[in-house]
Request: fold
Amino acid sequence: MAEVHSGENLLFLTDEQLRQGIEAMFFAYRGFTADPDRILATMAYGRAHHRALHFIARRPGTTVNNLLGILGVTKQSLNRVLRTLIEDGLVESQQGKTDRRERHLTLTDKGRGLEQTLSDAQRARMRAAYRKAGPEAVAGFRQVLEAMMDPDMRRKYHAIREADT
Amino acid sequence: MAEVHSGENLLFLTDEQLRQGIEAMFFAYRGFTADPDRILATMAYGRAHHRALHFIARRPGTTVNNLLGILGVTKQSLNRVLRTLIEDGLVESQQGKTDRRERHLTLTDKGRGLEQTLSDAQRARMRAAYRKAGPEAVAGFRQVLEAMMDPDMRRKYHAIREADT
DNA sequence: CAAGATACGTCAGCCTTGTTGACATTCCAA
DNA sequence: TTGGAATGTCAACAAGGCTGACGTATCTTG
Reply:
């Protein structure tokens, strides 16, 4: 890693390289969301519903406030999405036992079904990309993405796969 | 690269790894757009205006149709954005000389100014991330992103930095 | 116990940015 | 000369962000 500072290798930091990185993010993100979007378009849901389903699947029993922090939207915005998911029987909201102000969110079987369908599509593309690029590229990919996050989001990114608090 | 197929190394393709990649994309994209978004919020523009400015800056004289293909939105949607940019004197639209149906788009000095401001903010974050991760990670990052694109978008991603047709 | 803080839900209204559909104009090319 | 391509524009609508305000439980703390 010492050669990073040896002049010639700083070519990867030119404005042209950075612009290409920006464009790569733009085009890749389109591909990243394309498959779930196609599926969602056939029903009455959108990307916001997918995001909620994903993180509820990831952390069953998570609270509304927790989800709010992860998604980075207002409670009014999340509530609109959550309400339809609960009405449609995809998500269940249960009052907390220790703190009864909280609502714990879990997926129903139906909810798990849709989440699986969306997740399968998105993971398939991810898997193909990972396989094509190889494990070393994947490691680099993850490093750069993580460095690109706001510190707040980086904490949440790590927290999402830690044991329940 | 032969070790990719040797069993143990396929661990980077587990569902858990893929989910983490998905979440990394989600959180990183937020960081990616955060700085320009903050600037844009202080004026009457949004992310759509930024995208248009970026690609016009990148390819001065590009046609509306060309831009439409790159941005992947409807002409009505792009037109609304473009109209305000032209009215506000950030973008100039010139009738084509060989084909007078076409409109060639270029930035005015004022437009270049705003584009620079937005671009500087976004590149600064990109540069910090690149520097932190190092050149090898950056190469992997680019490889995975490219593999994630739709073939159509991949072509446009490459075409954007080729000589004028 | 009273008062304040917290978690959640909801109403109302606004903005950006995407969509369809319909239609007019201009002008190249067969 | 005529069909089709490129462009522009009007209207209507929807998703999904936002702010502000308010109400109601329910905890927590002085």
